[in-house]
Amino acid sequence: MSIRVLKPGLLSTFQDAGRTGSQHLGVQVSGAMDPRAHRLANLLVGNEADLATLEITMLGPTLQFEAPACFAIAGADMQAMLNDSPVPNHRPLVARAGDVLTLGPATPGSGVRAYLAVHGGYELAPVLASTSTDIRGAFGGHAGRALAKNDLIGLRYALPDSEDDLSDLAQTLWQVRIYLPAALALRPRSRLRVLPGVHWDEFTAESQRELLEAEYRISTQSDRMGYRLEGPPLTMKTPRQILSEAASFGTIQVPSGGEAIVLMADRQSTGGYPKIAQVISVDLPDLAQRRPGQTVCFAPVELDEAQQLDSELEDAFEQVHEVLAAARTALESIAKPE
User: Fold this and answer.
1) Neighbours of 66 (CB within 10 A)
2) What is the pLDDT of residues 202-215, one digit of tens each?
3) Whose CA is closest to 38, among 317, 319, 332?
4) Residue 75 region, left (φ>0) first, then alpha (ψ -120 to 50), else beta?
5) Contact of 76 with 116, CB cutoff 8 Å
6) Distance from C-alpha of 226 to C-alpha of 19, rounded to nearest angstrom
7) Which of 85, 158, 272, 310 is surrounded by the fewest CB atoms within 10 Å?
8) Strands of the sheet with 216-218, listed across from one edge
9) Dist. CA 44–CA 203, nearest whole Å
10) How many whole angstroms separate alpha carbon 104 and alpha carbon 283?
11) Confidence category of residue 247, pLDDT binned at 50, 70, 90
């Protein structure tokens, strides 16, 4: 029971919630760049949030289902086609054995990363309690790398081969009316919200002002490890050596040259550059869906507001979970573990 890779796309890797608990060993966390879309894709097919999805960047793969499966796509619109028919994002759908799913280039304005989930998850071996792909370390995911032509990806759960059963399931899933709360929709913000970093007070007043008022451009030298920002240089009042400490997703650090870098999912385990600010967690998906060449601006936010936004996001996921109860019941009644 598997999926065959006919074309791999630009960069397609398996990612889950991240390889937490091993940074003290020098192992990066990795995980989904857009945790919101990753979690939503899993929710749509009845999975727990920590199962791996296929993270697809900018140009999608062509995949052939060698067995029936329930799948869903969240995140960027990559003009997905199942055989010759367009398929929508944010819906659980049924593929039959032999069906071909094609994801093309990301539609401008929709983001750059899509997430493909299948009911029951993919057959991947965990490494340090995670199935996320660590490309630099060459472990996790599928063979520690991005997808390649002719890869076979196992599926952990099987749907019945009966066409009647598959048609009934497809109809049940299609009848579920799914409304995405605003907190789960990708609506690019004019300014991403930030909290002061641990070294905020050590930066000059001009640099503090520039960070919150200037426009920055995402450099072409950006990847899953970090987004380099081109814009006004940021300087400390008195430059000094900083002891290395744990690195976090969304931290804005500033090397000696003054060029800000936002640490992303594949960030290093520790770092010693001064940290001027922290992008709040609910705005990280917005940043992760921007491509090199796009601009980004920042705005301050209070800690209690950031925490309230986190709470609202959890409430939104719970709403969708309740709406999908009938879909989960239908899937659980016929899907069997391999």
Assistant:
1) 17
2) 999 999 999 999 99
3) 317
4) left
5) no
6) 17
7) 85
8) 295-296, 216-218, 226-230, 261-263, 251-253, 275-279, 192-196, 298-300
9) 44
10) 26
11) confident
